[in-house]
Amino acid sequence: MNTMVSQIHSLPGMLRDIFGTFDEAVRSALDPETCRSLRRLFVVGCGDSHHAALNTELVFEGLAGIPAEPMTALQFARYAVGYLPQEGGNVVIGTSVSGEVTRTLEALTLARQAGALTVALTATPGSRIGKAADRIVLTQTTPFPDPPGTVTPGVRSYVANQLALVLMAVRMGEMRGRLSGDEAESLRREIASLAEAAGETIAACDGAAHALASEWADARDFVFCGSGPNYGTALFCAAKVLEATGDPAVGQDMEEWAHLQYFARIEATPTFLISAGDRDLSRAVEVAVAARTIGRRVVAVCPSRATSLTQAATATLPLADGVREMLTPLIAAIPASLFAAYRADTVGETFFRGFGGGRSPEGGGGISRIRTSEMTRGFLTDYTDWQEFPPNSVNEWGNE
């Protein structure tokens, strides 16, 4: 079994192990006054961390009643931070597992300069991001080391980040009076039960994902579609295919597929439609019918009860039933992540293409410089003049 498959199979146990610790960390970081004074929430990050943030927008708005804006760290730091609402009550959550991604550090630093309360969501307490924020929520998971000399596309950290963000939404909703104490505790029990839902999803999809990876070994590009709380899931799944195999993969909004990928030349492109079987279902079914009509190989990633979608698809990778829509992102990436892992075996590809061709970890990740990028000081006058910090001397590889 390859290391990515092993990571995925470890998710149920990880969720059980970290739930209590994460809940305590969230309660400690978010005091009642902070929650009550909050008027607007920004959740920023890069890569997988950004995808996790996108998936939790509905949770923050639905449970806590807070306008939430997930943004890439670059978008927030260099285009949005200068225009934060002046009445105060702004909270900015910066998500980074390593705690060393320069762009997220930049976002939190500029947010503090603009008067926002900043919260670092990181697995590394002594990191630059942890030190830069007003509060910290530690997202350390139980150890799961890669074998020496290997780096595996991250799945555990992505799920852990989402769990922490969901628990933050519950805490905010409770402290703001949107949820009663009993309702909040009931939600926490429901969230904790997602460990079992993850196990059910793995059991239902593992063999099917392996079979599809073998059957569709001829495929050369992939499309993943999702809406609402699972748009980020689609982006994440595309990222895992890219990282695991190097194959071109696109994450797309379910609606936008009909405006864009519908016209692509390659007829048999595998197209994964990720649906909670809820508000997105009718459009997912329409997309599935259209995609199959023009020759696409369509995979329905959805609860088995969404029979209208499974019947319209070529194949199904089922999600556990009974999970409310806003919580499905905690399990919805499992099927396609398994597919990505097994495809790497099928095509004989090394994860991250072995960091070859200029992708070496040395020098902060070659020209990508995730940890050593120049950091902007921000707007100096009238939001028009910019000044750069010198690059950091840290010389490490950062993979968010």
List keywords for this structure.
400 residues, alpha/beta, Rossmann fold, 2 domains, 5-stranded parallel sheet, 10 strands, 14% strand, globular, disordered C terminus
Going by CATH, what is the homologous superfamily of the largest domain?
A: Glucose-6-phosphate isomerase like protein, domain 1
Helix share, percent:
40-55%
Whole-number mean pLDDT: 92
For the secondary structure, the number of strands is: 10
Distance between the termini: 24 Å
CATH class of the largest domain: Alpha Beta
Spatial sequence of strands, sheet with the most strands: 2-1-3-4-5
Radius of gyration: 21 Å
Number of self-contained structural domains = 2
Q: Give the low-confidence spans.
A: 380-400
Largest sheet: 5 strands, parallel
Strand content: 5-15%
H/E series: HHHEHHEHEHEHEHHHEHEHEHEHEHHH
**Rough outline:** globular
The CATH topology of the largest domain comes to Rossmann fold
Number of helices: 18
User: Which structural class should the secondary elements be placed in?
Assistant: alpha/beta
| Gross CATH architecture of the largest domain | 3-Layer(aba) Sandwich
Helix-strand layout with pairing:
Layout: H1 3-9, H2 11-29, H3 32-37, E1 40-45, H4 48-55, H5 57-64, E2 68-72, H6 73-80, E3 90-95, H7 102-113, E4 117-122, H8 128-132, E5 135-138, H9 156-175, H10 181-192, H11 194-215, E6 222-226, H12 231-245, E7 249-253, H13 254-257, E8 270-274, H14 281-293, E9 297-303, H15 307-312, E10 315-319, H16 329-332, H17 334-347, H18 362-365
Parallel strand pairs: 1-2, 1-3, 3-4, 4-5, 6-7, 6-8, 8-9, 9-10
Helix pairs in contact: 1-17, 2-9, 2-11, 4-9, 4-12, 5-9, 6-7, 9-10, 11-17, 12-17
